[in-house]
Structure formats: structure tokens, C-alpha cells
Amino acid sequence: MARSLETKSAGKILKRSxxxxxxxxxxxxxxxxxxxxxxxxxxxxxxxAMPYHGVPAPALRVACKQLFxxxxxxxxxxxxxxxxxxxxxxxxxxERYVAIALTGHxxxxxxxxxxxxxxxxxxxxxxxxxxxxxxxxxxxxxxxLRDFPAPMRKxxxxxxxxxxxxxxxxxIICQLGSKxxxxxxxxxxxxxxxxxxxxxxxQKAIGWALRQYAWTNPAEVKRxxxxxxxxxxxLSRREALKNL
Length: 244
What we know:
Layout: H1 2-33, H2 39-46, H3 57-68, H4 76-89, H5 93-103, H6 117-127, H7 130-147, H8 149-160, H9 165-173, H10 184-192, H11 200-214, H12 218-227, H13 234-240
Helix pairs in contact: 1-3, 1-4, 3-5, 4-5, 5-7, 6-7, 7-8, 7-9, 8-9, 8-10, 9-10, 9-11, 11-12, 11-13
């Protein structure tokens, strides 16, 4: 029994040290490639309370590839902990971008199941801004919906009724990349509950989701917009028909 407890304790210490080392590497690399002159402009554009290092998106993508080269993700638990440790301890916005990039690492492909949804829900709720939410909604939640339609359909319907703006937005835009595999009934059901909202981010989401589906079925989107002309906001209607 003593040996078992010692082994568990050693494992916890090892995990903490791995996470600390990873956090330090991320911060050091971002500081190395940052252009501090750009940081205040990036922060102002994003209307962010959290400061920026000043790392443009292309450089950030390259940095992530380097940072993830030797990373090992043997279990869902360790992957989740690495992501959340970085997310929760982030002092600069790019550090949270790295955390989101890590959620989509190729070695984490097996973890993209409904078991990952508590992780994504935390990012969506605590991130609470479009740069975080939209990436996770379309590139993480959407694929899980396609792979696990029954439980995820139920969850997205629940999110569409949520008091949380960003969960509602996620339910609407999670199918942006689904094309012909779009669950149209689900999309319309999630949109329905926000059709009368005056919230910009929901109106924009509705228009964006319809515009994306219009690439697959323009006639259907035209029909839907015409049928709901009196309820769709001018912003939603304009976005939906932009490419038609």
C-alpha cells in the first residue's frame, strides 16, 4: 500500500513538473518572437483586458509547431491538464491561443469525443469573446457533433437555450464546416431561439451560419430568409445573403 501511494504521489509531482516546464517554454518562446510595439494595437483591436505579447498569427502558428514537436500526450487526462493549466495560468492572450492550438494537436485526435466537451465548455464560458469561442466552436465542437450526433445534438439544443451568450453562439456556428453534412433541423432549431435577440454576436452568428450553408444549398437559404424576413435582423439577413 505504501509503495502504491508513493507511486501515485510521484506521478502527481511528475505531471506538475511537466506542466510547469511546458508553461515556461511557451512563455519564453512567445517572448522571444514577440514584437512589443504591436502588442497595444492587437489588444485594442480585440478590445481585450488581457495584454498581448505582440506575436502575429503566422508567427504564432510556427511557434506552436515547434512547441508541440516533442510533446507527449499519452492520455486524455494529461492532455486536458496541459491545456487547462496553460489556459488558466495565461497572462497574455497569445498564451491562450497556444492552449487552443494544443486542443487540436494531431496527437490529441483520439480525445476528440464527447468527453472533451467539459474542456471546451470551460474555454467557451471563461474565454467569452469571439476570437476564442469561434475557433473552438467551429474546429472542435463541430467535428465532435458530426462524429457523435445523438448526444451532441441534445447538448447543442440545450446550449441554444442557455443564458450564456457564447454557448448560444456556439450552438449556432458549430456547423460552419459541415457543408452537405449539416444537420439543418438542428441549425434551424438553434437559430430559432435567438432570432428575436438584439445581441450583435447572435445576429452575426445567425447570418454567418446561413451564409456558410448557402455555399451548399443557396436555394434553401433564400427560402429560409424569405420565410423569416420579418424576424431576421437586417444584420443576419445581410450576412446570410452576402454571397448569393
